[in-house]
Write a structure and sequence with these properties.
alpha/beta, Rossmann fold, seven-stranded parallel beta sheet, two-stranded parallel sheet, about 15% strand, globular, binds nicotinamide-adenine-dinucleotide, binds uridine-diphosphate-N-acetylglucosamine
Length: about 350
C-alpha cells in the first residue's frame, strides 16, 4: 500500500532530521515544518542526500495558526510527528512563559489545525523527564509523574492535553513517546547533534572536548550510589529512536486513544563508561576533572522498554560504543556542525 504523507514539525532538528531519513527510507512522503530557531537548513539538504523520496520544507512557526491552516489545506497530511519545541532545562527555569508558549501553545495550535483538517494521527516527542526522580528503575510507563522543571512540566501538560483530545475525538490515535537520553549520529557522519553554544548534555560535551573545542569535561559528581559513583542513564542511539517513530506510525491504528510508550534501551551507562567508550572511538584520552553534583540530577534511571516491544514491535539495536563511534565520525568531520566550512 502506498505510504501517506507525514508532517514532521521540527524536522530540521537533531531527532527530527534522523527521523526524516528513516521515514523516507520506509517510503513515507515527508513535509517538514521548522522555523530554524535551533537548527540549520543545511540539515534538510543532508537528509535529501542521505535518502531518496519526497521531502518538502515549509519554513514557519508551529505557533502560527494561519501558517498551519495553509499547510493542511495545501498538503494531504495523514499523520503528524511533533518534534518542534524548546528543550533546554536551564532556560526553561529562567523563561517558563516562553516554554509554555512554544511547547504547550504550539501543540494546541497544531491540534486545532489538525481537528479542522480532520487529521487524527499524532506522534508526540515526550521525555523521560516527566518522571522526575523515579521511585523505581527500570521506569515503567505507569510510574508517577513528577517533572522538576518548566520544560518537564510542559511535556506532562501536552501529554494531558493530547489524552483529553483523544478521549473527546474517538477517531484520534496518539503515541506519547517518552525518550530517554538520545545520543549518537547517522552512520554516514553527515547529520548529528549540533548544539548552539556550550552543550549542557554529556555526549555533545564529550565530543567537543575530544575534537579540541573544549579543554576538559567536568564530571558532575562521582559519589552517587552507582557501580562507579557517576550518574547512570539510558543512552539511546538517535537512529534507533528515529526507527521507533516509524514503528509508532505503523502501529498507530492499533493503539487505544493516547498511549504512552518509553523509548529507551532498558540498560544504563555511567558517565565514566561513556567517557571510556568515547576514548576508544576517538583513539585518544579525553581530559576530565571531577566536580560537584549538578543540582537537580538524579543518580540513575533507565527505561522499562517492554511496552515498546509489545505495542510497536520495536527494540533498540545499537549500544553506547556504536553511539560514540557515530558521534565521533560526525564531530570530527564537522567540528562546527552544519556551520563547518
Ligand atoms: P532540536 O532543538 O534539535 O529540534 C527541535 C526543532 O524544532 C529545531 O529544528 C527547531 O528549530 C524547531 N523549532 C523550535 N521551535 C519551533 C517553532 N516554534 N516552530 C517550528 N519549529 C520550531 O531538539 P531535538 O533534540 O531534536 O528534540 C526534538 C523533540 O524531542 C523536542 O520536542 C524535545 O523536547 C524532545 N526531546 C528531546 C530530547 C533530547 O535529549 N534531545 C529528549 C527528550 C525529548
Ligand atoms: C538532561 C535533562 C533532561 C533531558 C535529557 C535529554 C536536566 C536536569 N535534565 O538529562 O530533561 O530530557 O537531558 O538527554 O538537565 N554530565 C556530566 N558532565 C557534563 C554533562 C553531563 O558529568 O558536562 C552527567 C550528568 O550529571 C548525568 C549524565 O552526564 O549524570 C547525563 O547528563 P545529560 O546528558 O545532561 O542528561 P540528563 O541529566 O539525563
Amino acid at each position: 500500500m502506498a505510504r501517506k504523507t507525514v508532517l514532521v514539525t521540527g524536522g530540521a532538528g537533531y531527532i527530527g532530521s534522523h527521523t526524516c531519513v528513516e521515514l523516507l527510507n520506509a517510503g513515507f512522503p515527508v513535509v517538514v515544518l521548522d522555523n530554524f530557531r535551533n537548527s540549520h537548513p543545511e540539515a534538510i539538504e543532508r537528509v535529501r542526500k542521505l535518502a531518496a523520496g519526497s521531502l518538502k520544507l515549509v519554513t514557519g512557526d508551529v505557533c502560527d495558526s494561519a501558517c498551519l491552516e495553509r499547510l493542511f489545506a495545501e498538503e494531504s497530511i495523514a499523520a503528524v510527528i511533533h518534534f518542534a519545541g524548546l528543550k533546554a532545562v536551564g532556560e526553561s527555569v529562567a523563561k517558563p512563559e516562553l516554554y509554555y508558549r512554544v511547547n504547550v501553545g504550539g501543540t494546541l495550535t497544531l491540534i486545532e489545525a489538525m481537528l479542522k483538517a480532520q487529521c487524527s494521527r499524532f506522534v508526540f516527542s515526550s521525555s523521560a523527564t516527566v518522571y522526575g526522580d523515579p521511585q523505581e528503575v527500570p521506569v515503567p510507563e505507569n510510574a508517577r509523574f513528577a517533572p522538576e522543571s518548566p520544560y518537564g512540566a510542559s511535556k506532562a501538560m501536552v501529554e494531558r492535553v493530547l489524552t483529553d483530545v483523544a478521549k473527546a475525538n474517538p477517531s484520534w490515535r496518539v503515541a506519547l513517546l517518552r525518550y530517554f537520553n538520545p545520543v549518537g549520529a547517522h552512520v554516514s557522519g553527515e547529520i548529528g547533534e549540533d548544539p548552539l553554544g556550550p552543550p549542557d548534555n554529556l555526549f555533545p560535551y564529550v565530543a567537543q572536548v575530544a575534537v579540541g573545542k573544549r579543554e576538559y569535561l567536568t564530571i558532575h559528581g562521582n559519589d552517587y550510589p552507582t557501580r562507579d559513583g557517576t550518574g547512570e542513564r539510558d543512552y539511546i542511539h538517535v537512529v534507533d529512536l528515529a526507527r521507533g517513530h516509524v514503528a509508532a506510525l505503523d502501529h498507530l491504528d492499533e493503539l487505544h486513544a493516547a498511549t504512552a510508550i518509553n523509548l529507551g534501551r532498558g540498560i544504563g551507562g555511567t558517565v565514566m563508561e561513556v567517557l571510556r567508550a568515547f576514548e576508544k572511538a576517538c583513539g585518544h584520552p579525553i581530559k576530565h576533572v571531577v566536580g560537584p553534583r549538578r543540582p537537580g540530577d538524579v543518580a540513575r534511571y533507565f527505561a522499562d522498554p517492554a511496552q515498546a516491544e509489545k505495542l510497536l514491535g520495536w527494540r533498540a539495536e545499537f549500544d553506547i560504543e556504536r553511539a560514540c563511534a557515530d558521534t565521533w565520525r560526525w564531530q570530527s568531520r564537522y567540528p562546527d556542525g552544519f556551520r563547518t566550512r
